[in-house]
Amino acid sequence: MIRSACCCKACQQEDISGNYDANVLMMALSSKKVEVQFWDSRKKDVGEIIHRVKKDDCVGLILNTSGAQRKDPDTCKSWILRMVFGEVGHWIAVRKEKDQFCNLNSKYDEPEIYRNDDELANFLEEQLERDIHILIATSMEPGKG
Questions:
Q1: The model scores a pTM over 0.85
Q2: Whole-number Cα distances in Å, 124 to 56, 73, 98, 108, 131
């Protein structure tokens, strides 16, 4: 597990676009007894991600789109934001609820539910093709996954 060594106030900030640094997210989750592990997104092995998230201690996934936006300049707005502010990312939480996963993307009108491994795998394959960053969130408390 990769843990943040950063605990100074200066590190606990967001960039001007509102995209919080991963260290801030890790510290906030740590206060809730959740730790995260970075997934090497160069590994396109969705089966291994599915295997990890099916473990009892896993509480979900956190994805960041900053890498995806470099590859997908689909709108003039995103291009302008990147030029002015640098990387503009968006955090997405995918929460594990028993045997299904809920995509809690704030850009959606309602959660998107993945009811089985195939649905989750399809979502993850799409994201990995877009060069998204993935963090696997696990509970630090036994039996709370």
A1: no
A2: 20, 20, 19, 17, 11
Position 68 scores a pLDDT of: 55
Cα dist from 145 to 22, 123, 140, whole Å = 21, 21, 9
User: What pLDDT is stored for residue 40 in this prediction?
Assistant: 84
Q: Is residue 3 part of a domain?
A: no
> How many structural domains does the chain have?
1
Please report whether residue 109 resides in a domain: yes
Q: How many CA atoms lie within 13 A of 64 on its CB side?
A: 19
Does residue 144 fall inside a structural domain?
Answer: no
Domain of 124?
9-139
CA distance 27 to 20: 11
Per-residue pLDDT tens over the stretch 53-93 = 999 999 999 998 876 554 455 555 555 555 544 555 788 99
Distance CA 103, CA 9 (A): 31
